[in-house]
Amino acid sequence: MSTADVEMSIDAIEAHNLSKDDTSVDSIEAQNLLKDEKSVDAMEVQNLSKNEKPMIPEEALVESRSFFTSEIYKIEVQGLPKFFGVGDAKKFFNKKHCLNVHKFKYAGKKASYMFLNFKNEDDRERAIAVVDGLELKGKKLKAFKSKPAKDPLVRIKQKQALEELKIDNRPIKERILSAVCPLYEMPYDEQIKHKTEIVTDFIKKFHGDLIKANHNIKKMVDDKTLELPTLEEFIKSPIINGYRNKCEFTIGLHPKDRTKVQVGFRLSSYKEGNTSVVNAEDVPFVPEPMKKLTKFFEELVTNSGYSTYDPISLSGHWKILLLRINSQKEVLMKITFNPQLLEDKELETIKDYIKQKISHYMEQDHDFKIVSTFLRFESRTSKASSQLLLGENGFHESLGNLRFKVSPESFFQVNTSAAELLYTKVGELADLHPDTTDLIDVCCGTGTIGLFLSNKCRKVYGVEIVPEAVKDAIKNANTNNITNVDFRAGKAEYLLGSIFKDVKQENKDIDSTSTKVVAIVDPPRSGLHQNAVRTLRASEVETLVYISCDMSAAMQNMVNLGKPESNFYVGNPFIPKRIIAVDLFPHTSKHFEVVVLFQRLKSNDDS
């Protein structure tokens, strides 16, 4: 998927009641766990996802610890046959359909539903896409996100956290910056040096694992007929401060003055009941127009007569302010509001209030313009779609010579200028030619990479598991009058085979020496499915470019590409030839993109 998902959005955290299947950990176990548990560290902002899907927030009563983490990435599956147990579920979901289910929560012998927990949001999203509508014993399954269970340790942890606050005497500014951008005090060249060391360590491990997996590669390295690549360059972000074109701000209360509304980021992880919020005015990656708008919105909320949402008591209304901005300084705004038990008439009054305040604000002189305002009513039991209050239903942003439509939920890289450098470098590594190259864009998302490189290819084939993203990719192609693209919705492991057949059919009358099939793989955080790797191995692809936002998750994919030919992995292995990195997220410690160029090892290749 597109690297977009690799966003580091800071989400509001909503508390939920116990799910019907959830059972509390008994108090004795809870106390024992606490004996060995270290204090909760400030959570670093993470950039989620690829396809541009942000990471799902941890719920307010779910503690940030490995024991309970998978609760925040849970789905419910309905329509299961009676007596369908955990053993059956493991075979069906993990073995047959290759889902990465971390934990199965059994609801009983006669229950027609079960809960599946995952380690991350990408695995959960993929599971929903695979399972929803799947047939099992004549029944269609339903799959959807489920609420996390209430953590039985939450009250004890909150008490501990309050004690810890007495020890942390750092100024609030320092604490919020440490939480969301831990490298903020480090000069940018030093940040790049820090990230270079992380990538270098990964490359060493990758080399070691690859040599262990393929003794022929080891022999070639020992004979000095093959030199495995090191990091060529770490490309810096052209913009260091104010680079994020999308931020999701929590609406809450100041940690010291609990009557003061703040629109910004959580101060730290689950401290002071996890309700403290600090304004974003000192956070370097937030653009100045967004900082001004958060201050304006603090005033709007304060004067509204409605309180901010409290994820502990589940009371209050104002929850999230999402802001997106393009290079023309046009702003899209989406407000999330919990209606609680308000009547429809009151909700209409709130809409009018928001429209009046924003319209009046934009009558003043600003160096930016709010072109879209959306409102979403979201409660614990229902999440209505966003409704347009003011302006257009989105704006356009440029990437290279292309224009992409951006709406509240659509994916677009959060650092536009760095994304352009990334895509340009990917095209250079792939060595594309408009008369001879067929490009296979695996996990294409909304088509940004394939469309960006389409003028350098004879044809682009994109495959993406999320149907809505494929629809956006087609719209983006039409907007830019690009006709040499073919986007398809479905799982890569199922569609790649048919795509390669189509490529072969279209090129049947062309001399094979004048054709080149290149694959660009930009998977979600969890990596590419094993069967998709096998299909790529067995294909006509000679050049493969792998883009990773999570090197540890991508490791197995990369090693499998280089394993020796076998009955399982048909086709000669791919050998890494070049490695570069691109910094899309200055001031964060572990967020960047690594790009690896693989070339097919020919049978007589001794280099």
UniProtKB/TrEMBL annotation:
Catalytic reaction equation(s): uridine(54) in tRNA + S-adenosyl-L-methionine = 5-methyluridine(54) in tRNA + S-adenosyl-L-homocysteine + H(+)
Matches recorded under Gene3D superfamilies: 2.40.50.1070, 3.30.70.330, Vaccinia Virus protein VP39 (3.40.50.150)
The keyword RNA-binding appears for this protein: yes
Sorted UniProt keywords: Methyltransferase, RNA-binding, S-adenosyl-L-methionine, Transferase
Pfam family, one: tRNA_U5-meth_tr
Entry annotation: catalytic residues: C549
Annotated positions binding S-adenosyl-L-methionine: Q413, E464, D522
Molecular-function GO terms, alphabetical: RNA binding; tRNA (uracil(54)-C5)-methyltransferase activity, S-adenosyl methionine-dependent
Enzyme Commission no: 2.1.1.35
Entry-linked InterPro entries: MeTrfase_TrmA_AS (IPR030390), Nucleotide-bd_a/b_plait_sf (IPR012677), RBD_domain_sf (IPR035979), RRM_dom (IPR000504), SAM-dependent_MTases_sf (IPR029063), TRM2_met (IPR045850), U5_MeTrfase_fam (IPR010280)
CDD domains: AdoMet_MTases
Domain RRM, residue spans: 73-148
Domain of life of the native organism: Eukaryota
Biological process according to GO: methylation; RNA processing
Enzyme class: transferase
Transmembrane region(s): none
Keyword RNA-binding: yes
Family assignment from sequence similarity: Belongs to the class I-like SAM-binding methyltransferase superfamily. RNA M5U methyltransferase family.
Protein name: tRNA (uracil(54)-C(5))-methyltransferase
